[in-house]
Write a structure and sequence with these properties.
By secondary structure, the chain is mainly alpha-helical. The chain has 6 helices and no strands. Keywords: Kinase, Transferase.
Length: 165
């Protein structure tokens, strides 16, 4: 549908024409209705420009406390998933290769699904990175043989040996 020239006097560029493209032609010919539509769009744009954008936390109004709660929850969920796969490895529910793949896939998904619980502030990113960071340190200690945990080694290694990751 072609928009008649001069219908939108306040339109500076063609960037906002998509707002009008779905309007019925009867509305385009009615100046009063069109003015109401234009003022509504103007109010919407100005409201968006003047609104203060603050990072929101999923829990509470205090973002730091919300991020601490999110850290505890995501850490608990990740730990529960690791314990689940350790038990399946210990009991031999899946072969070692499948179990290892399930560990890596599920932990990555848990981390991604828990990410929205954190605020977008700097402390949200730092606290969210603690969960995989602590897991990396644990795997490093297990791999070096400084920490003994046969169930974790069996669930995450290729050959059941702590020196082969």
């Amino acid at each position: 549908m072609a928009i008649p020239a001069g219908v939108f006097p306040g339109l500076k560029s063609n960037s906002n024409l998509h707002l009008y493209s779905s309007l019925p032609s009867s509305l385009l010919s009615n100046k009063k209705a069109l003015n109401r539509f234009n003022s509504g769009i103007h109010k919407l744009k100005t409201r968006r420009l003047h609104s203060e954008v603050r990072p929101k936390a999923m829990f509470l109004e205090n973002p730091v406390m919300g991020d601490l709660i999110a850290t505890a929850l995501s850490g608990g969920i990740a730990l529960s998933m690791l314990r689940l796969w350790e038990e399946t490895a210990k009991r031999g529910v899946f072969d070692q290769k499948t179990n290892r793949k399930l560990v890596h896939i599920s932990i990555g998904l848990v981390f991604m699904l828990c990410w929205p619980m954190f605020s977008s502030d700097r402390q949200g990113a730092i606290l969210a990175s603690l969960i995989p960071g602590l897991n990396i340190i644990k795997m490093l200690l297990l791999g070096l043989g400084l920490w003994k945990d046969d169930a974790t080694v069996k669930s995450m290694s290729r050959f059941g040996d702590h020196s082969h990751g």
